[in-house]
Amino acid sequence: MSRNDLASSACAVARSIEKVGDTWSLMLMREFFLGTRRFEALHRNTRISPHVLSGRLKAMCAEGIIEKRQYSEHPPRDEYLLTEKGRDLWPVVMALMTWGEKWLDGPEAVALRHKACLQEMRPTLVCPECGEPVTARDVAAHVTEEFAGERCTGSDKG
Amino acid sequence: MSRNDLASSACAVARSIEKVGDTWSLMLMREFFLGTRRFEALHRNTRISPHVLSGRLKAMCAEGIIEKRQYSEHPPRDEYLLTEKGRDLWPVVMALMTWGEKWLDGPEAVALRHKACLQEMRPTLVCPECGEPVTARDVAAHVTEEFAGERCTGSDKG
What is the ipTM of this complex? Predict the structure, then answer.
């Protein structure tokens, strides 16, 4: 399977990975959520090479994850803003942060405050039906027929 | 910045991206959470080439995300199981799924049932302090001094 094949998968995880599941797209998402908007600052804060950065920004604009806005006419200068589609990637970045803080040693890099209750916190996953926290062990996954048809798992232990 | 530099970042997001923020590691995590354990099945269900798959499994074992267990002595055969560290990546896969289901057209591929309350659901993010759902707009992020030192954002709009 090439990366491109993931785009047509029945699986939403695979389709998302094709769009944003690479090192530099994820690093750019982190940066956008920290409020960075301009090419030079994106470059400095991620150290992505200008050539790669330019390509990623173009692809993310085409995908509707960010949008380009001119902030200066003379000289012409653009900045990049998250769209609603892009902002909805926040849980991906939160999940990577939570995992890294737990399992990969390092300082606290970012404090998060919930604007409504003013508490510092890390968001957590819950079941929206009962409100209880959920982890991988708490949830049973069942592959639908449509997705099963794409998979070829034999009779061994999957 | 090369991918390797991310490992020493003050930012937990960057450190996590260095470990699992690539297409095939993320695809393998999806597969592990669907219960797939064996090389042949991992290969079939992700179409990752055997060479790349072998390298990723070795790296994920070295990182403590999965562990290898022999399930047959004659012939010798191994399977790969998520560790606690690996299971803690579940929110990353959930976040990718939720985003893909909302923004990238496709069928429902996987049904999730919360074992405790028996409801089908998609986990959602809440503030653990007040219990309210949170999105990017609800949370203010503040970069700590340690992380600010690694960044070079000037006086422009980040």
Answer: 0.95
Q: A79 to chain B nearest CA, in Å? A: 9
The verdict on a CB contact (< 8 Å) between A104 and B16 is: yes
What does the pLDDT look like over A27-52, one tens digit per residue? 999 999 999 999 999 999 999 999 99
Contacts of A37 in chain B (CB under 8 A): 157-158
- How does DSSP classify residue B133? B
Report the gap between the CA of B72 and the closest CA in chain A (Å). 13
What is the reported pTM? 0.95
Out of 3.20.20.70, 3.40.190.80, 1.10.10.10, 3.40.50.300, which CATH number does the structure's domain A3-150 have? 1.10.10.10
> Which residues in chain A touch residue B111, judged by CB atoms under 8 angstroms apart?
141-142, 144
For position A153, what pLDDT does the model report?
56
Residues B140, A112 contacting (CB under 8 angstroms)? yes
Q: Quick one: CA torsion of A90, A94, A95, A97, rounded to 10 degrees?
A: 140
